[in-house]
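Dear all,

This email documents one entry for the complex benchmark we are building for the journal club exercise. For each entry we list the sequence lines for every component of the assembly. Then comes the predicted three-dimensional structure of the complex as a token string, followed by one or two observations. Please use this as the template for your own entries, and keep the labels exactly as they appear.
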Amino acid sequence: MSTQDIRERIDAFPTHRIGPYRVRAGRPFPYGATPVPGGVNFSVYSDGADTMSLVLFERGATQPSAELEFPPEFRTGSVYAMTVFGLDAENLEYGFRADGPFDPERGDRFDAGKVLSDPYARLISGRAVWGREPDWDNVYHYRAQVLNDDFDWGGDRPLRIPAEDLVIYETHVRGFTRHPSSKVSAPGTYAGMREKIPYLQELGVNCLELLPVFEFDELDNPRTDPVTGERLYNYWGYNTVSFFAPKAGYAATGPFGMQADEFKSLVKELHKAGIEVILDVVFNHTAEGNEQGPTISFRGLDNATYYMLTPRGEYYNFSGTGNTVNCNHPVVRDFVLSCLRHWVAEYHIDGFRFDLAAILDRAPDGTPLPNPPLLEQLAHDPILRHTKLIAEAWDAAGLYQVGNFPNYGRWSEWNGKYRDTVRRFVKGEPGLVGELATRMAGSPDLYQGRTSSASVNFITAHDGFSLADLVSYNDKHNEANGENNNDGANDNNSWNCGEEGPSASSHIRRLRVRQMKNLLTILLTSQGIPMILAGDEVGRTQLGNNNTYCQDNELSWFDWGLVEAHAELLRFVTLLIAFRHAHPVLRSSDHPTGTDRVGSGYPDVSWHGVRAWAPDWADHGRVLAMMRCGRHAKGGSVDDDHVYVAVNAHWEAHDLELPALPHGQRWHLFADTGAAVHPPGAEPELQHPGRYHLGPHSAVVLVGRAAHQTSA
Amino acid sequence: MSFDVRLRINDKVATIELTGELDASTAREFHDTVGQAAGAGAVELVIRAERLGYLSSAGLRSLVFARQKMGDEVRIAIVGASEPVARTIRLAGFDHSIDLVDA
């Protein structure tokens, strides 16, 4: 069989000429700029524009080198498509100019004075170095570029780790290695993060959840630190400028336009290390803000399509940031779907966490939909079929859907109720024993009929106190954010253990370490997917700031000096993660029922108090013990040990009566948060087989198996 | 410094010597040379970069092109790249498919 040289194809020849440029009618799909034989195909949607032009720049030039108006015959429906031949794609930056009515009441905000960024741009230049002041007079800031798909993936593909086996680690690309103590060759970048993969492997996490990496502008925060006068940033990045482009300022090679390659290399190496990558994605709003915000792309291309507007043409603000993306408009649905497919197909991304996801089920007029088409589409999309989908199931306008987010059997949720219950129990609040049991069992009250991996369990996340601060501060201390401490959540369910902030008291410091261990012990022995906030394993503090979205400094950065300073805590967390991986009984996908389904003589889960088989559900109760029967692990398909977890949130010690094990088995001590922790498999047998003395504010994890040589 | 590219093939080992700046304007010449090396059935490609002053993004892309043009079986080594050039190659992650060798 002979093959045809693609340059010989008839569609690789121009039919028209615009000035010196040879062009032909383009293909409407895919949208954006696509290299084709001999040229580049450009395609853009606008329903309301009267005319559309392609604006071409030489790389870095302040003024365009050409503007090519799309001839009427190059328009199909509301899509303008043109192939331009002979372009030097490497040195090209492009945008669009849309002319049309400016009639805000009808939703139109066309502005022919603006060069608009391509919503489908796969590469953005103009902000290649983090924090560098741009030329604010430049007519075009976020400059679309053409991307080549020539990355060498080798045999890589998404890992498809079963959701219930994940241990998620939430972190920020820049913050993870920006601190000088990271000692990486390119601090604060994808490449820097790649150098820290051995640390992640040693810790034992198998999924990295990255705060936004879609191109955003860290300089779009107008505030300054009220004390130092220094600039504050949009550090977290929840203000997307360009949804298909990886943030160039996170790439050491950004100035070379190599950010896509650098990020792909990170993903590829993480996969080699057995670590999945989940991206935190922000489809609820864009960086264009409200009526006062900049016109970057969507507003100028088709404001009424992309944004939810009131009958008077004002922006609905369900996101709390000025605008709300019109996610259930068919065109926008298509945009979101294409975007996610792009990240899965082109970047081998394993999953997504959707910021303020409740907005995704609102109709164009803001009403929550019972069967939102976007969510259904994402759940059943063929490209996303095995991709993890995680919802932050609330929004900023009061829609709270934890437990009832439309899930189609596919979606998981950040379980905010888990976070609140565990925090409140461990700090010593009464009346929570029953709810804690429910949360540790995978929150079957919220997720009945779904797998237990519907629940992403977490104690801390980027938004809120770090773990060390949760046990060191009663109140937030956000003065450095420049809003008189009015920003950030007030209901933190935190307890400072007796003194606000750093303490010289060894009693308080020991109690804090124990409390951190108690919280993590519950997290990593609960059913559901545990998520750890980066740095919590080494006691990272933000000095009581619970909203560091704007702090590009030591408040946010991972201080690698803590790895040595808090080596004991790190060892505890590392062994705890290893323990979870070693015990499938903690990772069943079905919720436990409290019954014996395999004939082991024990229920899959049983609850205990100071006395075995007698949990104290009363209001004053502050002790809860959970026993998991290993014969029920993974629905009885694998055999595991018994695991017993007891938490004492009381300020007094208790002598616990332990449930009896099957004949020939003994309890072994894996961890006591007030005493020792042992490597899984090498736990010493308890001296007293039937009792355990658990100190105040402490937790213990025991493993029941055949008698061992050593004793504790 | 003007750009120059030279190809030698000895015993199925192709050696490309680069002088000057590899960027968008010179990448084509480099691509053609890589094509010649591939066409000659080279089993190893050595890119001598001691006299390569600058590597632009287009130049970096050329290395991707070389990898794909030569195929997975062919070892590609870059010899004597200056530290800025080697660093950029490493940060982009290309050092996993192309060997960086000191001169």
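Observations: The mean pLDDT of chain A is 95. Chain A has 15 helices and 30 strands.
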